[in-house]
Specification:
With 430 residues, the protein is α/β, with parallel strands linked by helices. The protein has two domains: 112 residues, Urease, subunit C, domain 1, CATH 2.30.40; 305 residues, TIM Barrel, CATH 3.20.20.140. The chain is built from 13 helices and 17 strands. Strands 3-2-1-4 form a four-stranded mixed sheet, with no helix packed on it. A four-stranded antiparallel sheet has the order 5-13-14-15, with no helix packed on it. A four-stranded parallel sheet has the order 6-7-8-9, with helices on both faces. Helix 4 links the parallel strand 8 and strand 9.
Length: 430
């Protein structure tokens, strides 16, 4: 006797007609035509059953703050930072918590059940850290939230940043962050990488650093991050986020850099929506995309997870909390259009990001947590194309959210009376 059986599901690996049984909040069986009873039975209707979406790079302290104190007129990264610097002294714990919880509601509705958020610890009040720690506790029953101590204004550049970062880690933030390209000099940036990696090694913490979020091909702090990862024995615990300058680097240098990153067992976290919006601002034409070399990083075996980064904040006036939007943009910007490549991008918003975040019990295998999303699509490639409704979102086998299928009714003479988007999927696409 199971608690729940989802019948006739399609899995991301292509298996169809699968019944997925849940007992005690875990997946207890996956097989076709399962002969068993359950307290609840749900017909998946052949739709795609996926593990939940995972966002390895977000800024929950800034989310939903668009227009405060005013709009970003230039649309640049630096104006966004300046606006955030004006807003930061006025932030209250209550407002931060309220906005973050509202975003988590949206995330759950999109099947997004794990988020790594960078928390700006530049303000010595550390109200952002206090607020996000409270949010982490409150959403724990339905969303896993990891918090990065992020010195937004620079670890050495901003007065008091070193002490504030240390205090934020003492308060309970999970991960050491940094922003070396925002230090005053390249030398200071390299020093910050070394100092922050030493802190992580001493405390036994992971590292996730904003690294080279610039069009400058000579911004090469990712090289230093890889070297310090090896020096401090942090292999498998370090991620470089953005890595935008790799877009503009010459190919010979990159041919050296990517193997160094692989040797350091680093992960890469591009943020396609925000990278494409902010980078290339000083170009006329041709205009650079500013998105790092995703196919080449994947080919080298480097785990690549795609982040949302921002939703309705000083840096990005768009965003929906939908990681399939992120994969959809990455597909176009990287021209990863084959079936194999689409599957790789689907993995980048699910299993890869779960691996980067070290999520335990994640996946669609017997013994894993019964955390699942039923999508109105037939396979991962179609999920990216359609960005379909989340018919069901489950955590530990309990339904958290559900959405009716998208079906349009037609009144066209001699034509079908309805349109269901998944029906348009080509059956022989590879």
């Amino acid at each position: 006797m199971f608690d729940l059986i989802l019948r006739d599901a399609t899995l991301p690996d292509g298996r169809t007609g699968q019944d997925v049984a849940v007992r005690g909040g875990k997946i207890a069986a996956i097989e076709p035509g399962l002969e068993a009873e359950a307290g609840e039975v749900i017909d998946a209707g052949g739709h795609l059953l996926s593990p939940p979406f995972v966002d390895p790079h977000f800024h929950m302290d800034a989310t939903l703050s668009l227009g405060l104190p005013r709009m970003n007129v230039s649309g640049t990264l630096l104006e966004g930072i300046a606006l955030w610097g004006e807003l930061r002294p006025t932030l209250t714990r209550e407002a931060l918590v309220e906005r973050a919880l509202r975003y988590c509601d949206l995330a759950v509705s999109k099947g997004l059940l794990a988020v790594r958020s960078h928390v700006d610890v530049s303000d010595p009040r550390l109200v952002t850290a206090e607020a996000l720690i409270e949010v982490r506790e409150r959403v724990a029953p339905y969303l896993e939230l990891q918090l990065v101590a992020f010195p937004q204004d620079g670890y050495f550049r901003a007065a008091g940043a070193e002490a504030a970062l240390t205090r934020s880690l003492d308060m309970g933030l999970d991960i050491v962050g940094g922003i070396p390209h925002f230090e005053r000099t390249m030398e200071d940036g390299a020093r910050s990488v070394a100092a922050l990696c030493r802190i992580a090694a001493d405390r036994g913490l992971p590292v996730d650093m904003h690294c080279d979020e610039t069009d400058d091909p000579l911004s090469r702090h990712v090289e230093t991050l890889a070297a310090e990862t090896i020096r401090h024995g942090l292999q498998g615990r370090v991620a470089g986020s953005h890595l935008s300058s790799m877009h503009s680097m010459d190919n010979y240098y990159v041919s050296k850099l990517i193997p160094l990153m692989a040797e350091a067992q680093m992960a890469a976290i591009p943020n396609p929506l925000i990278n494409i919006m902010l980078q290339g601002r000083h170009d006329t034409y041709p205009k650079r995309r500013g998105l790092t070399r995703i196919p080449e990083l994947m080919a080298a075996g480097i785990p690549v997870g795609l982040g949302q980064d921002c939703v309705l904040d000083p840096w990005y006036s768009m965003g929906s909390g939908d990681l399939l939007d992120v994969a959809h943009m990455a597909l176009h910007a990287t021209q990863m259009g084959s079936g194999v490549e689409k599957r790789a991008l689907f993995d980048a918003v699910t299993v890869n990001s779960a691996r980067i975040m070290g999520l335990e019990g994640y996946g669609l295998e017997v013994g894993c947590h019964a955390d699942m999303v039923l999508l109105q699509a037939r396979d991962p490639a179609e999920a990216i194309r359609l960005r379909p409704n989340r018919l069901l979102v489950l955590r530990r086998g309990r339904v958290l959210a559900e959405t009716a299928p998208e079906v349009s009714r037609l009144t066209l003479e001699g034509r079908p009376d309805s349109v269901d988007p998944p029906d348009y999927a080509p059956r022989n696409a590879i």
